[in-house]
């Protein structure tokens, strides 16, 4: 505890660095996965290519990806950009299959109704299909958020500053409190961001907010009747 | 590109395959440690998963544990266990087992739970005891999902075993950290490529296993 109190500015600095690596990766993952999933819906070969490709991507060890990536994108191993791209690739490995499933799970009825009402394909996607797939997309994004925060620590092995630095530094110096505070902070950060994603989801999808209470309310009313 | 060629040359050079830091030794170590970790996880996770799947009790606890395990950073776990148990084999093995546990548990539990309720009821109605229902109906029907869980666990541990070398465990990670310390990029890259290859090979090995795990009776009949 004394170690934590004495190093509060350092912890803040690492947390901030952690966020600047993880948050862009999480956002990029979402922004790339949804169009990719939409592409996958258009044709079978593209679908199998994307889904198999992302599961292969997940087979690559994180540390190995951090090292191999600079070869392809021409960054330094320790560049923030290298970390962000690596994390985004891992995020996509999880998010693309989830997004494909989310879009596939959408009820065909409303889509046919939208078409019958004269909606164009673009407008139908944005105003009907995407909102209906929303809750399933959110579930995928939550998994991505938690695993990205946890994965960001791996960069520390290569000398990238993040909360993971507390593990490597603490291990080398034999400081229990440093390693443990890194562990606690990482898990806490993952949980906080997860809650944040859920909150944003509720804000953007008000109907999911209302559905549950009214459902249970309906049931109790029925039971009372 | 030159680095990639240098890395491939490193792997191709027979001189780099022998000795205590040779690829052959490290590769074997990597495979053995990974398998040991998954075996330990399976020894704990499979019976527990079956029990949870059969009784339906403790389902929330399993879900909460899996969620927490995902948030737990591997590197943090490896270093904490390394500090606690010292440099040696126990710490990394324990870390592998903890990391493999959620996948194994989920596979065992989801498999048993996904068994056709009609078949389970029929087994119970024909006088099987609960243990027989589990062993003769639910476990065989859930086998494909269990193998799927084991596959995910092995993959995860092979990838993680690289990080475990940070606290002194063996395996291909040693090469990676040695390259990192000596700024030998081709060496790091060679070790990364070997780990990726190992992960892909293990995934390919599991493909027929997963097909074999489907019990004969539950395969879709060809004559219909």
UniProtKB/TrEMBL annotation, chain A:
It is a multi-pass membrane protein. It is found in: Cell membrane; Membrane. CDD domains: TM_PBP2 (cd06261). GO terms for cellular component: plasma membrane. Keywords: Membrane, Transmembrane, Transmembrane helix, Transport. The chain crosses the membrane at residues 16-37, 49-74, 80-100, 132-159, 179-204. Belongs to the binding-protein-dependent transport system permease family. This is ABC transporter permease subunit.
UniProtKB/TrEMBL annotation, chain B:
Keywords: Membrane, Transmembrane, Transmembrane helix, Transport. SUPFAM superfamilies: MetI-like. GO terms for biological process: glycine betaine transport; transmembrane transport. It comes from the Bacteria. It is found in: Cell membrane; Membrane. GO terms for cellular component: plasma membrane. The chain crosses the membrane at residues 30-50, 62-87, 93-112, 145-167, 187-209. Residues 27-206 form the ABC transmembrane type-1 domain. It is a multi-pass membrane protein. Its main location: membrane. Belongs to the binding-protein-dependent transport system permease family. This is ABC transporter permease. The lineage of its organism: Bacteria, Bacillati, Actinomycetota, Actinomycetes, Actinomycetales.
């Amino acid at each position: 505890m004394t170690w934590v109190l004495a190093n509060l500015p350092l912890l803040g600095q690492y947390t901030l660095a952690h966020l600047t690596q993880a948050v862009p990766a999480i956002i990029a993952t979402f922004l790339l996965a949804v169009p990719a999933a939409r592409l996958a819906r258009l044709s079978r070969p593209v679908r199998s290519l994307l889904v198999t490709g992302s599961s292969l991507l997940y087979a690559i060890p994180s540390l190995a990806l951090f090292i191999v990536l600079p070869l392809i994108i021409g960054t330094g191993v320790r560049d923030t950009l290298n970390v962000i791209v690596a994390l985004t690739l891992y995020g996509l490995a999880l998010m693309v299959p989830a997004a494909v499933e989310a879009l596939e799970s959408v009820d065909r009825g409303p889509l046919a109704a939208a078409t019958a009402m004269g909606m164009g394909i673009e407008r139908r996607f944005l105003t009907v299909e995407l909102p209906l797939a929303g809750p399933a997309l959110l579930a995928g994004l939550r998994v991505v958020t938690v695993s990205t925060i946890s994965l960001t620590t791996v960069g520390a092995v290569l000398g990238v500053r993040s909360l993971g630095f507390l593990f490597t530094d603490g291990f080398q110096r034999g400081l229990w409190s440093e390693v443990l505070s890194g562990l606690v902070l990482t898990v806490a950060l993952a949980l906080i961001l997860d809650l944040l994603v859920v909150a944003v989801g509720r804000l953007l999808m008000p109907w999911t907010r209302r559905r549950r209470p009214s459902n249970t309310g309906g049931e109790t009313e029925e039971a009372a009747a | 590109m030159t680095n990639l060629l240098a890395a491939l040359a490193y792997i191709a050079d027979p001189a780099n395959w022998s000795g205590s830091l040779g690829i052959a030794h490290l590769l074997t170590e990597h495979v053995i440690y990974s398998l040991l970790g998954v075996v330990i996880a399976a020894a704990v996770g499979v019976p527990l998963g079956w029990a949870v799947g059969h009784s339906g009790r403790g389902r929330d606890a399993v879900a909460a544990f899996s969620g927490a395990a995902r948030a737990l950073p591997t590197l943090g776990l490896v270093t904490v266990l390394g500090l606690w148990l010292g440099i040696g084999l126990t710490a990394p093995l324990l870390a592998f087992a903890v990391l493999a546990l959620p996948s194994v548990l989920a596979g065992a539990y989801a498999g048993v739970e996904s068994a056709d309720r009609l078949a389970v009821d029929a087994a119970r109605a024909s006088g099987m005891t609960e243990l027989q229902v589990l062993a003769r109906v639910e476990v065989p029907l859930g086998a494909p999902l269990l193998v799927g869980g084991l596959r995910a666990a092995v993959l995860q541990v092979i990838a993680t075993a690289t990080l475990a070398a940070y606290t002194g465990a063996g395996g291909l990670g040693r090469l990676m950290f040695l390259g990192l310390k000596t700024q030998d990029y081709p060496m790091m890259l060679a070790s990364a490529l070997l780990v990726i290859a190992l992960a892909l090979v293990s995934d390919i090995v599991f493909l027929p296993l997963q097909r074999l795990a489907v019990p004969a009776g539950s395969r879709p009949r060809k004559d219909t």
